[in-house]
Amino acid sequence: MKKQFRWGLLFFLTPVLLWLVLLIVLPQIDLFIMSFRTESDSGEMLWSISNYLNFFNEPIYWLTFVRKAVYSVLVTFLTFLIALPVAFYITKVVKPKFQGFLTVLLLLPFWVSEMVRIYGWMILLRESGVINHFLLKFGILDHPVEMLYKDTTMVLGLIYTSMLFMVVPLIAVLESLDDNLIEAAYDLGANMWSILFKIIIPHATPGIVSGSIVVFMLTLGNYLTPNLMGGKNSLWFTEQIYNQFIASFNWNQGSAFGFLLLFLSSVVIWVGLKLSKQTLRKVVQ
Amino acid sequence: MQIDLSVQKVTKKFQEFIAVNSVSFEVQKGRFFSILGPSGCGKTTLLRMIAGLTEPNEGTIEIRGKSMAGVSPNKRPVNLIFQHLALFPMMNVGENIAFGLKRRGENKANIKKKVKAILERSGLPGFDTKKIDQLSGGQKQRVAIARCLVLEPTVLLLDEPLGALDLKLREQMKVELKKLQAKVGTTFVYITHDQSEAMVMSDSVAVMNNGEFEQIDSPQNLYNKPKTPFVAQFVGDNNAWSGRIRQSEGTTAEIEIAEGSVFSTKVDETLQSGTEVDLFLRPEAMFIKPDPGIPDLNRFEVVVKSILFDGANSRLLANPPNADTELLIALPQNRQYDYIQVNDKIEIGWDKQSGICFPRK
After folding, report:
1. Considering the domain B3-228 in this protein, what is its CATH number?
2. CB-CB: which of B52, B86, B151 is closest to A184?
3. Contact flag A188-B84 (C-beta cutoff 8 Å)
């Protein structure tokens, strides 16, 4: 009986294990090894940490990374600022029968791929795009303005892409907030701001942190949006990695950058957790 | 006597539904006032209007003579204790109690002193660093009360705060709350659906039904002289008969009840014979096997259906022999009636002064 059970377990576990090992663990290990190999002048492969050193010695590399990290933090924060009122409105203000409808409305754009959504924004924002067309028509502008390929546009696109991942955990966490707590605080003399900072945000912290981690990671690892909406002016670190692999064909350098991205973003999240006094276990729940 | 809270003709409608219909009352300073009603009668809505969490459609609410129209809850000199207490789980006991003081911008040393004092008075000294989830039900209760009392409100509103406690603790908290109110002298407005809570604690009780006050009176008067059939049935247990006036003279009337017996009882006013009436009688107004020598008793026979033993509150459940009206009869536990068995036929008597009679509307 016991033996049969084990065979059953193995049977169902095998595809998962194969998937994990063959497609995720092994390639990662391979990339990790590759990141420590470098080609010598004579064309031999040697062990070396020069790929990692390049990152720190070449300002363009670490500057793009810092830039990217700062923008990711900014995007995460702005997403939070927009998502909190939205989540609050859906959970506390609107009538229960519309809650589901509004949540679906939030989900709706995510039924098409990110690429399509970004092209949608491009159609709206480009020099010959919809917004410029109407601004010209109503005489607000006398010549079209290029709104694409700017940092602001890129931030806009990134916020749009990551909104849902902030709103959903916030809705979950605000739903568990007892309305009476807000009323009790109001009754005890609190105004809107102290209710927000003393009651709502402390209660929502686990949701805020988990939403922020997801948004931050997605933003940091996003390749499509910065590339399409930010253009060449907004160099993103993922583009550096892409260039190493595809353009320069330097896989060793590319994988070193990949691991640096993984490591450094983990550090940022760790610092964020420490600052907000949350533990990963509590946040993931 | 100073009037702390005055509610005049307050009405609240939710679309077509009238939750509170033109309710008026006044509460004097330092009194314990209860609003008693079944769930859904509008008592919570009324309390929320006093607290400012809901605005009335009509009518005025005044606290110490000041109109509260348009004053937001955080500016009103009233505090509300919620049914589920609504203690802030993200703060410890001390921070919970200090919350209101901090919002007022009092200085830190002062806040600390006040929190310490109120915790001691609530019987929770040294609890200020405890987390809310470390407290028992009764302790949470006290923290919730302390959190409001520390602000020294003119009126303290309580929304069935004992509802979530178990029976034993509830009995204990009832007495404790009454003592506390007497000690601090704050005006309490307490709402509940539990008539025993209202009766034990209050100086006066308003009985509310379908958004209206049926009667505002002392607990004794509510029990002994109910003014409406609803009050008679809602406050305490009552046996109800429907019947018709046979003849009425002055303040006594003979009533023929549906199952055929004729009882004589006191009435408030002379009633036309033939008037349909409801007759109410408390379980303890009925005597089992009354002495044949006692005059002026209504006597009739019943068959015991079951014996409901509940200590001092034991009753007999009985039917008249040829009717299925269920009657509750108090069964004194002095061992005098231990011989009574189910299906026994016993004689019951009641004094005509104890009947309560209302013409049917």
Report:
1. 3.40.50.300
2. B86
3. no
